[in-house]
Amino acid sequence: MRLLLTISLFMILLPRPAIAAMPPSDFKQGKQLFLSGNYAEARTYFDKAFREDPANPDINFYLGRTAFELGDYETALMAYDRVLIMDPGATRVKLEIARCHLRLGFKEMAKQYFREVLATNPPEPVWKNIEKYLAAIEEGERRHFFTGTLTAGVNWDDNVYQSPVSDIILGSLQLTGPTATPTSDQIYDTTAVINHVYIFEDQRFSWKTTFTNYNALYENQQDLDVYYFGLNTGPVWKTDKFMWSNSVTAKHIDVEHDRYQESLGFATALTLPIERMLFNFGGRLEEKNNFTDGFRDATNYLLYFNPVLVVGANRLSTNFYQEVEDAEAKVFGYDRIGWTLQYDRQLSEDISAFASIGMQKSDYQGPDPFFLVTRSDTIEDLRAGLAKMLWQSEDARRTLSAQLVYAYLDSESNIEIYTYRKNIITLSLTLGF
């Protein structure tokens, strides 16, 4: 009897071979819905299956995957943790846990799990994906970003002085000198734009600084050579619903190596994305100091509204603006309104084209002392151009492109010397980085 009891107790305590429970039918239905992309309905079936068999690793794994696809990362983590309790070496589960931590913003935890998976020497597609995730995490932890463009171009301008259509004004007065009749010239220009962005811990906030340098050198009319320097710096607030930037602006202009003008101001811009539209609003306030003529010192105000519509390869943008310049002498001050309408089209993967039309009307604030009338101008602007991508780096961060642009300006004024026509052809190369 004692022997029989001993054998019976041994049989009871002997570990039995693990027999995997067959997944319930709710699990099978949920898996079919999951594979078809119907995550919300699949979750209903997985929840039922989980209540029937809460220790089943397959059910917990797919419950976690479904919760992840639905954006419920906390529930996904709990499901994956239950799988790890049953199988601490489940590599695939650790990979999914890392993705959950990444979505929740716990980057250090995500990196820890990604590295644990890498240590198991997974198949090549897996470790390549993990390296992409780790690179994305490192990129997301960067605080300083530098971007910019360098452009060099040549321009053919058939009226560099904006000379009037006729050298006879006021009926009989003959104009003389280099500006009396249209003079053509070739202009070589360079433009450098360097951007620096610092992103704070709260990634909705950043600080952006932009430096701009533009130089235009004339083949023959060196008295028109221009050197421009601009600096904007200020905070940016960006969310999914808007982007609002504010900046202090400083500008300096030299003409033929002599100081011409400086300005200091403040600018603000608000961007609202709504479906396929972008609505841009902005304004600027500047104090201008003119070194050649103190009567041109001025306070300048600018407001603009720029809606943009994008449909496939087509982009339609408009810009409406109003500008007021209150100069020291009223003859140099003006009230100005204008608009432009531009259509862009991506013709192929590396070629795009655009065409635009614009109008600008300026009414000056005081009478011209020579002509004894208050100047009023209207300028029409027609442009068209092509751009072609010549080269792009593997990571798409550096590009080289070429642009060809034609522009026609037609100015009508109640003072004859400000009525002119102008044609400009520009060919340029731009390096983006």
Walkthrough of the structure:
- With 433 residues, this protein is of the alpha+beta class.
- The chain folds into 2 domains: 21-140, Serine Threonine Protein Phosphatase 5, Tetratricopeptide repeat (Alpha Horseshoe), CATH 1.25.40; 144-432, monomeric porin ompg (Porin).
- Helix content is 25%, strand content 48%.
- It is built from 8 helices and 16 strands.
- α4 (57-69) packs antiparallel against α5 and α6 packs antiparallel against α7.
Chart the SSEs and their pairings:
Blueprint: H1 2-13, H2 25-35, H3 39-52, H4 57-69, H5 73-86, H6 91-104, H7 107-118, H8 124-140, E1 144-157, E2 168-169, E3 173-174, E4 185-199, E5 205-218, E6 226-238, E7 243-255, E8 258-274, E9 277-290, E10 298-311, E11 314-327, E12 334-346, E13 351-367, E14 374-392, E15 399-413, E16 420-432
Antiparallel strand pairs: 1-4, 1-16, 2-3, 4-5, 5-6, 6-7, 7-8, 8-9, 9-10, 10-11, 11-12, 12-13, 13-14, 14-15, 15-16
Helix pairs in contact: 2-3, 3-4, 4-5, 5-6, 6-7, 7-8
